Description:
Blueprint: E1 2-7, H1 17-29, E2 34-39, E3 46-49, E4 52-58, H2 62-72, E5 76-79, H3 84-96, E6 100-103, H4 108-115, H5 120-132, E7 137-139, H6 142-150, E8 156-158, E9 182-186, H7 195-199, E10 206-210, H8 216-222, E11 227-230, H9 234-243, E12 246-249, H10 258-265, E13 270-272, H11 278-282, E14 288-290, H12 294-301, H13 306-313, H14 318-332, H15 337-349
Parallel strand pairs: 1-2, 1-5, 5-6, 6-7, 7-8, 9-10, 9-12, 10-11, 12-13, 13-14
Antiparallel strand pairs: 3-4
Helix pairs in contact: 1-14, 2-3, 4-5, 10-13, 14-15
Amino acid sequence: MKHIMIATDAWHPQINGVVRTLERLAAELKHFGIAVDFLTPDAFRTLPLPGYPEIRLAMAGKGAIRKRLEEMLPDHVHIATEGPIGFATRAACRATGRAFTTSYHTRFPEYVAARLPIPESVTYSLLRRFHNSGSATLVATPSLAGELRRHGFTKLAPWTRGVDLDRFAPSRRVDIDLPRPIFIYVGRLAVEKSIDEFLKLDLPGSKLVVGDGPQREELESRFPSAHFAGVAEGLALAGLYAAADVMVFPSRTDTFGLVVLEALASGTPVAAYPVTGPKDVLEGSGAGVVNEDLRVAALEALKIDPARCVAHARSYTWRRSAEMFMDAIAAANPAIAPEAKIVGQAIAAS
């Protein structure tokens, strides 16, 4: 069995799309004859990121990462994030002449600019050097790839996402004692998610917010008529998705938005801005509405047949996501390709 080491600064106790994607990827890659070893903050001393205590910054240096590489002896290295572990792993790979791939999950230039007086161009320049030094950079959508190319990123490869169709389904619906229609938001409560753009809309019925984060107290104070449910996971989250009438996705900074697929699989249409992520998943699908007027999108989404949403979600599987990941990795590192291809073909033929 071949081994891939995935270096990631995003890990538990964080609850986000990066962590969920990497966990599902590792589970699916077993079917391709690939074992995954994660290099995470758990392996190092950490400090909490100010304002985000669940995000731990690893005290990782090039020497420590190099030692880990010598111990793990992976057949391939993939760097998932651009944090301390990501940068140290990149440096260790470059110092030893080891090829590596990267993935672009998070719009750090936009996130940084929203909090600090640092122009996006400065952060993009740093990230461009980081990613272009690898063999390939995996991106989730065509529109994101286009944006990165305009910023000078090269060697981009597609890697879509999936959804657990057993967990997220209309049958998981629970009763919610709120006036209908119910418009739901699911995700972190942070400034870059633009949740206030949803909460200030003039909509009938109720607004339900699922999640937690540094902006929760402020949002609860500003929008007392909204209902804040806190964090929900597993079947509890699936039940809330299925109980809602529309999911409103107000973020303009996500690179994909796994919650969009989870809502659709639950039979809940999605309203969003026409930006990277929602635009790629929803446009032309009939399963959601993208519009610069988010209120119009939310009201139009109420008319969508839930069955249409479920049908569209079925085209996004974690197996297909893993296949695309392996296609990109094998193109960058042919030594890992044969076993993966043989196992994959066996699955397809069975």
